[in-house]
Amino acid sequence: MTAIDGRVPDGAREITTGQANRVWQIDGPAPYVLKHYGDPARAANEAAALALLAQHQAPAPKLLGADPGARPAWTAQSAVHAEPVPADRLLHELTVPLAAVHRIPGPHAGRLAGARRHRTWRDYLHNRIDTYTAAAPDLTPAAAALRRELDATDTDTEPRLLHHDLQLGHLVRLPSGSTLLLDWELAAFGDPLSDLARLAVRLDLPDPTDVLHLAHQTDPAADSRIRLYWRIHQLADAALSTDPAVRQRGRARLP
Fold this sequence. Notes:
alpha+beta
């Protein structure tokens, strides 16, 4: 087998699906997926997440190589011959893999690599809100309301691993019947309810508590926390989404 060095070999088949990254399927005796990133920080973060998931034998592709410092930054991952779990089965089949992920503890809040680490989950969320208002200053009043709600909410939870980009297409079923979660470049350590809130946004659910049954553990404050995180993710879409429909939907649901 030719050494994996981040270059696209002859015969590679591009399977990019519209995101900022480019992705190729490399066939052969030992097939793999090569991913080139527009943002090196995302390459570093995905590589760190896949390495951690392997340590815990969690359901994800294997990391075969990575160089976040290259131009372009890249990772190589095991090829996954699987079908996306259909929409009508997604919430049911997420239960087991998501519980395995959310049991993995983290040493800090925020991205695993390639970005600033935060002492607390609240600090990380304040930093994210700063990012969103810097990108869209007209959203400052809505962001200020979310800051006040954040400071009034008990978010003192032990950081756990989050996929933080749960959506259709990222959960796939192998021929064996088991499932894997793909695309870990946005992974972070934080409150698992934030994972569920982001999923509710991606599924365009009018009420984020509709996915609370996926929580590995809940507490009396879970309702208020998931609603807060849901609105913060809406703010992220309103400020940063490159899809006009998604951006407008996020703005429509802000306080």
